């Protein structure tokens, strides 16, 4: 019975992560389309195709309508939902596995958070790499004009082989393993600090008010964690976009550090942070939505680890 219960709880963790992925794509894909176009077109020389994120978005809307902002969304739904399912599920399970009696008091422990998050990031990089390659090539005009995600994937495999669909894999691995460690560390510490402060100022609150507070804490801790994630790994994401959308098949062009050094020589540091505006604009609402959806669905499914942390902080 104990094994069946553990298996059921594990499945619930992954379902909760899946709902976080749905919230992420619905909220953030238009921002991502703008970011990818800025990265692909504003890193090639001194003359920028788009003056700003707003200019890029309005050009896309004028030329393609609202559908233009959701190009590649199907690929994102497939990739991001399963990515979130694995990232949140693996993180929650590994964190509980690594915790000892001394680290279950609710206080964040970096020695538990970082390996749990980095391992989840490593696993999801294998899903995200082909998914994002298809998404980026569909988002950027002029990349062989595929008619759909499947057509794009098949053309890539035909032209470059199976390895082609995993172009940018090493860069994706670096971005996700480092970024997830930053994300969950920021989330856990922000959430812990906010609950501790709120509980000290309002030790006795109604159940309804507690639910509203939980949503508010989820919004802020998730949004702040998303900003921390992208502030650290955006240069790697820029390199990944260049690698995945470049027509070049030369192996050195797949080296993220070589790509970043070339971007820096051409357009300076700003090139390494191309798409920063829409990325940070997207980071807060999408990650806030993801964390709130994750926490809410976890509680709805009866997973107790989130509530347990809050209860421990009151004692």
UniProtKB/TrEMBL annotation:
Stretches that traverse the bilayer: 69-90, 110-129, 212-233
Locations listed in the record: Mitochondrion inner membrane
Keyword Magnesium annotated: no
Highest rank taxon of the organism: Eukaryota
Gene Ontology biological-process annotations: mitochondrial L-ornithine transmembrane transport
Record's keyword terms, sorted: Membrane, Mitochondrion, Mitochondrion inner membrane, Repeat, Transmembrane, Transmembrane helix, Transport
Predominant subcellular localization, coarse grouping: mitochondrion
SUPFAM superfamilies assigned to the protein according to its UniProt record, in alphabetical order: Mitochondrial carrier
Alphabetized Pfam families for the sequence: Mito_carr
Solcar repeat locations: 8-97, 108-193, 213-300
Coiled coil: none
Name this polypeptide is given: Mitochondrial carrier protein, expressed
Origin species: Zostera marina (Eelgrass)
